[in-house]
Amino acid sequence: MSRAVLMKMSENNSDKEEQTSSKGKNISLPISRVRLIMKSSPDVSSINQDALFLTTKATELFVQHLALSSFNNGSGKDTNTLSYSDLADTAEESETFHFLTDILPKKILARDYLKSLEEMQEEDADF
Amino acid sequence: MAERPEDLNLPNAVITRIIKEALPDGVNVSKEARRAISQAASVFVLYATSCANNFAMKAKRKTLNAGDVLAAMEEMEFERFLEPLREALEVYKKGQKGKKEVSEQKRKDKEKKNDSENDKSKEDEEEEEERMEEEPEAENEAEEEEEEEEEEVEN
């Protein structure tokens, strides 16, 4: 684990008395990091403390929701594993997760891709 | 401070923990899936921020507030989050109130301390110079402490 992660973890641990699990009322994700991401959004001037908290908490809920939905929806139940393809499938099939299709593209095997490329070229050649 | 690409990611250890807590016991999560969920989470933050910001701009406000974020969740079709978010916010606000009182008290104590130190400053030049060399270090330590305090208040 990188030192940055360890430092972040110890930062979180120092608030241990206040944190229960992420299911509880407090949060695990570092607010400062969430703020960094939010500030990188154009047109955003300032963010009030409560908004920052809510966004962080919402992100945790989102992670839980995405993981569980993908697992239930996917083929992972047989293998007892959540895999990348479960996530990609869910992004494509579920309306709520549709905004993720760009970053969770479905994967195809290289040879299938090359094959379809060939077929496209053949069509052009025939023409 | 320049933003490095990894700074826009969320810490892997925490993401992994949240995933594990959400899934049934004993389920494995591939490394690729973990990384993908982490990236998805960052995208979620951006999307939510942009959406919340639209609400703020509509109301001619420059500061994003809690209402904007909640409105964004609804807009993004994450109504299921609204109830738990509102509850969590209540608890958070109560906690913040307590912390504020504690840190205000600390600040008052610090001010008292600084006042009494300033009274001692009538020394000869040599000693003053020595102290001036030392002071920057002490100031830095105080600044660091303040930064830490601020971080705690936020967290």
Summarize the structure in words:
The complex is a heterodimer of chains A (127) and B (155). Chain A is mainly alpha-helical and 127 residues long. In chain A, 61% of the residues lie in helices and 3% in strands. Chain A contains 6 helices and 2 strands, in the order ααβααβαα. Chain A has helices at residues 3-14, 31-39, 49-73, 76-79, 84-93, 110-126; strands at 46-47, 81-82. In chain A, α3 crosses α5 (84-93). The longest helix of chain A has 25 residues, at 49-73. The radius of gyration of chain A is 21 Å and the shape is elongated. Chain B is built from 5 helices and 2 strands, in the order αβαβααα. Chain B is 75% helix and 3% strand. Chain B has 155 residues and is mainly α. Chain B has helices spanning 12-22, 31-58, 66-75, 82-118, 125-154, and strands spanning 28-29, 63-64. Chain B is extended and about 65 Å long. Classes of the chains: A mainly alpha (127), B mainly alpha (155). At the A-B interface, α1, α2, β1, α3 and β2 of A face α1, β1, α2, β2 and α3 of B. β2 (81-82) of chain A pairs parallel with β1 of chain B, so a sheet runs across the interface.
